[in-house]
Each structure stands twice: as structure tokens, then as C-alpha cells.
């Protein structure tokens, strides 16, 4: 089960280059249900995602480079290319009245910096262990709008509709 929230951001972190990253390329074979191929550096995957916006089933299967290249010829829409940075978020804040996470609890911000034709789009995603944790999350102040429930910010929609 994938449980994540998505945000636009106000500005890039000043020290972005110090964080680890992957170069990601992904295309969509189908969008209902979502069937995606992805290259993450030199690793290749076929992903199935169920319906839903914040919480949905997700299964990843490894692919060979040859299988990825074969399927790449069959994608619908545009290929998405981006650099994904991994930024630790230790002791995240939650909304008033919600239980505080245990000391030392951490999340990771997946910060996607899109290449053309989607540049200058930058989005942050945060994955959670439960829908309650996702709903209680208070984003850092450099995050902007919560776009979790806005279809046009989901990669599968972007690939087809631009």
C-alpha cells in the first residue's frame, strides 16, 4: 500500500546538491489502472498502481534493461524525466490534537525536479505508514500547496495530458 501526499514548493532548499538523488525516467503503458515502467539510474521496474489519490495499492516488479527498452516503445503520452532527491525529515510536526510521532521518528521527502517538457515543475512527495499519519502531517514551511487530490499533479495524468 502506498500512502503519500504531494506538494508544490515555494523554493528549492539552498543545500539541495548535498542530498542523495536518482535520475528517474518513467512512462505509462496504461492509466486505468496505472501500469508504469521506470528507470531509476540503472535499475528498471514495472509498476502497477490501484485506484486512489492518497492511498492505493502499489506493486513493483523488476525488469531487465532489454525489457524496459522494449516496453518504452509502447508508452502512451510523454516520457517523464526527473531528478529525485531524498531529503530526511526528522521529528515531523503534526496538527494540534493529533498524537505526536515517537522521538527519532523520521520521514523522507522525495523532491522531484522535472526535466523538460515539464520543467520548471518541482514537487515534493512524502510517504507515510498510515492514512492517519498522512492526514496529521504538517509540511515544512518551504512546501507550498497540497496537491495530493489534484489529478493534474499525478505523473500518469501529466504524461498523457502534458
Note down, in words, how this protein is organized.
This protein has 162 residues and is mainly beta. The chain has one domain: Hypothetical Protein Pfu-838710-001, CATH 2.40.320. It is 13% helix and 49% strand. It is built from three helices and twelve strands; from the N terminus they run ββββββαββββαββα. The strands form two sheets. Strands 1, 2, 3, 4, 5, 6, 7, 9, 10 and 12 form a ten-stranded antiparallel beta sheet that branches. A two-stranded antiparallel sheet has the order 8-11. β9 and β10 form a beta hairpin. The longest helix is centred in the middle third of the chain and has 8 residues. The two termini are 27 Å apart. The model has no long low-confidence stretch (mean pLDDT 91).
Query: Unreliable segments (pLDDT under 50, ≥5 consecutive)?
Result: none
The largest β sheet comes out as:
10 strands, antiparallel
- CATH class, named Mainly Beta
Task: Tell how many strands the DSSP assignment holds.
Answer: 12
Termini separation comes to 27 Å
The gross shape turns out to be: globular
Tell me the structural class.
mainly beta
Q: Determine the mean pLDDT.
A: 91
Integer count of domains: 1
Q: Give the helix tally.
A: 3
- According to CATH, the homologous superfamily is Hypothetical Protein Pfu-838710-001
Helical content (DSSP H or I, runs of 4+) = 10-25%
**How large a portion of the residues is in β-strands, by DSSP E?**
over 45%
Amino acid at each position: 500500500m502506498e500512502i503519500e501526499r504531494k506538494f508544490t514548493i515555494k523554493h528549492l532548499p539552498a543545500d539541495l546538491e548535498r542530498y542523495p538523488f536518482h535520475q528517474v525516467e518513467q512512462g505509462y503503458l496504461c492509466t486505468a489502472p496505472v501500469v508504469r515502467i521506470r528507470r531509476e539510474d540503472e535499475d528498471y521496474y514495472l509498476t502497477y498502481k490501484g485506484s486512489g489519490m492518497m492511498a492505493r495499492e502499489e506493486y513493483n516488479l523488476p525488469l531487465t534493461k532489454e525489457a524496459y527498452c522494449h516496453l518504452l516503445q509502447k508508452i502512451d503520452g510523454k516520457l517523464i524525466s526527473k531528478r529525485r532527491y531524498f531529503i530526511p525529515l526528522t521529528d515531523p510536526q503534526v496538527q494540534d490534537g493529533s498524537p505526536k510521532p515517537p522521538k527519532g521518528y523520521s520521514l523522507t521527502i522525495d523532491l522531484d525536479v522535472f526535466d523538460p517538457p515539464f520543467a520548471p515543475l518541482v514537487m515534493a512527495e512524502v510517504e507515510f505508514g498510515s492514512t492517519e499519519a498522512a492526514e496529521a502531517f504538517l509540511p515544512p514551511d518551504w512546501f507550498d500547496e497540497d496537491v495530493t487530490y489534484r489529478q493534474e499533479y499525478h505523473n500518469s495524468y501529466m504524461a498523457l495530458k502534458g
